[in-house]
Amino acid sequence: MANGTADIGVIGMGVMGANLALNMAEKGFKVAVQNRTPDKAFAVRDDNPELAANVLPAETLEDFVKSLKSPRVAVFMVPAGKPVDDEMAKLIPLLEAGDLMVDAGNADFNDTVRRTKEVEGTGIKFTGMGVSGGELGARHGPSMMVGGARDTYPLLEPVLTKIAAKYKDQPCVAWLGPDGAGHFVKTIHNGIEYADMQMIAEIYGIMRDGLKLEPAKMAEVFRDWNTRELSSYLIEITAVNLDEKDLETDRPMVDLIVDEAGQKGTGRWAVIEAQKLGVGATTLEAAVAARGLSSRRDERGEAAKLYSGVETAPAQFFADEAGFSELESALVTAKIIAYAQGYAAMASASDEFGWNLPLGTIAEIWRAGCIIRSHFLDDIAKAYDKGQRVVNILQSPDFVGRVAKGQAALRRVVAKASLGGIPVPALSAALAYFDDYRRERGTANLIQAQRDLFGAHTFRRFDRDGAVHHHWPAV
Ligand SMILES: NC(=O)C1=CN([C@@H]2O[C@H](COP(=O)(O)OP(=O)(O)OC[C@H]3O[C@@H](n4cnc5c(N)ncnc54)[C@H](OP(=O)(O)O)[C@@H]3O)[C@@H](O)[C@H]2O)C=CC1
Ligand SMILES: O=C(CO)[C@H](O)[C@H](O)COP(=O)(O)O
Q1: Which of 264, 260, 263 lies closest to 301 in space, CA to CA?
Q2: What mean pLDDT, rounded, does the chain reach?
Q3: What ipTM, to 2 d.p.?
Q4: What share of the chain in percent tops pLDDT 70?
Q5: How far is the CA of 189 from the centre of ligand 1 (A)?
Q6: Model confidence at 398, in pLDDT bands (50, 70, 90)?
Q7: What is the pLDDT of residue 315?
Q8: Alpha helices of 10-105 — where are they, by DSSP H?
Q9: CA-CA 20 to 30 A from 145: which of 20, 57, 133, 215?
Q10: What's the pTM?
């Protein structure tokens, strides 16, 4: 097949695909672009005349493939699931051995593993790559988590290192491991993103329902927090969200937004995988569950009526320096615990699938470009950089002191919220995980006794080796 001139191609000119293509074009790469609705591909070129020379829209997939240099690199940026399978099925007959297809959308990593297997034997390569940073990230510098066979990365690396976000000149992109590794890591990124967002929303709930603050005052507090330990993109945008007024009504925009969170499934994938691996990512789970409950608005309305008179204590929160500092400390501590859970899931997946995930590198490439970017991730990167195995972030010397100090604030905030009837499911899940994690003598001995009584499942004893079954009294 004749060679074209485009260095790379992007299929799917939605929010992410169009911006990723423009980012590539701006960095000097010739980019072929194609879209199910072809007009959009031409609009990407025509709406950006300064980059038009590097944007090559194609009416059809055949034209798209013809416009690519060999070996061809075609990046999908379409919704997860069937759209990726459909686009792959159309593209494969047009490609040749040595060409590479990249799914850069969010994907269930199990689909990525399956797709990698499906192309085996064709000579065509397939890679799953997580991209984070939203619209602006895609346009000016996302964080990218690349999976797939190691030998496919050189085909992508020159483009990705140029378009990636930079943290102190270091590009936020890396090859993380074979087959589904890139999409697995992106999935955990999103699970952590859900937890971060939920915990921020819970603190907002305390400020709104416990402290009766106006959003503009809350914005001030979040802006202040953004100058210290919590400094991050999500805290920064929260202040912007809270400060915004609706032009028509002059009311705070957040007060006009319906309290039902959307979700596209990535957080759910994260907690499903954590469960499959036997890792308790309970803070992430609480965040996913809270989004689910938020969407049952009518049902919540009915329950609110049924329980309107239940006894709760007056909220013991204070809108002063000490009160805000307590909330800040609680949020920092719960955040460390949530990240510890996400990292535990990645460590476990790495062992389970033999990926050898570079956990320190993952923290490094999340320091800029992605939605959970923060200075805090630099601390995690440093914790993994010391050459020793980090069993769990909560055991890392760099974090033990911080959690030991902050846990009292988290405990007080969860207790006060609970007594005051203000829901804090993710914060309390973080605290419960911490207390369970640090307890030497747990309570699973009783569960083992129960299992043995009803199912002869056996148990182990401290005072002898091997599994034993006890003859419990008949019930
Ligand atoms: N938005 C975000 O912040 C982020 C999104 N992602 C992921 O990136 C991917 C794309 O998301 P985003 O750009 O936001 O989505 P958009 O909805 O903005 O765009 C979707 C694109 O996919 C095309 N498409 C939709 N369905 C099909 C189909 N069945 N076959 C072929 N093409 C199809 C659409 O074409 P048409 O114009 O014809 O409708 C459109 O170009 C998703 O996997 C998403 O999860 C990842 C990180 C951040
Ligand atoms: O991947 C992303 C950010 O990292 C996307 O914005 C994703 O859509 C966010 O997930 P959800 O839509 O479920 O909130």
Answers
A1: 260
A2: 97
A3: 0.98
A4: 99
A5: 19
A6: confident
A7: 83
A8: 15-26, 38-46, 61-66, 82-91
A9: 57
A10: 0.97
Ligand 2 pocket: which of 144, 145, 190 to mutate (most atoms within 8 A of CB): 190
263 lines ligand 2 (CB under 6 A): yes
Q: Are 12 and 35 in contact (CB under 8 A)?
A: yes
pLDDT at 3 (0 to 100): 79
* Alpha carbon distances (Å) from 164 to 13, 23, 133, 143: 19, 9, 10, 6
pLDDT band at 141, cuts 50/70/90?
very high
Ligand number, closest to the Cα atom of 265:
2
> How many CB atoms lie under 10 A from the CB of residue 280?
19
164 and 173 Cβ atoms separated by less than 8 Å: yes
In short, whether 264's Cβ falls inside 6 Å of ligand 2 is yes
Q: How far does the centroid of ligand 2 lie from the alpha carbon of residue 105, in Å?
A: 10
Ligand 2 binding pocket includes 270 (Cβ within 6 Å): no
- Report CA(79)–ligand 1 centroid distance (Å): 4
Question: Among all residues, which ones are annotated catalytic?
Answer: 186, 193
Confirm or reject: Cβ of 190 under 6 Å from ligand 2.
Answer: yes
pLDDT value at 385 more than 90: no
Domains of the chain: 8-179 (3.40.50.720), 186-437 (1.10.1040.10), 445-475 (1.20.5.320)
Q: Sort residue 134 into left (φ over 0), alpha (ψ -120 to 50) or beta.
A: left
> Span 426-454, mean pLDDT?
98
CB 57 within 8 A of CB 33: yes
CB contact at 8 A, 363 and 185: no
Determine whether the shortest distance from the Cβ of 143 to ligand 2 is under 6 A. Answer: no
Kindly give the distance from the C-alpha atom of residue 77 to the centroid of ligand 1, in angstroms, as a whole number. 6
Tokens of 258: 């319906």
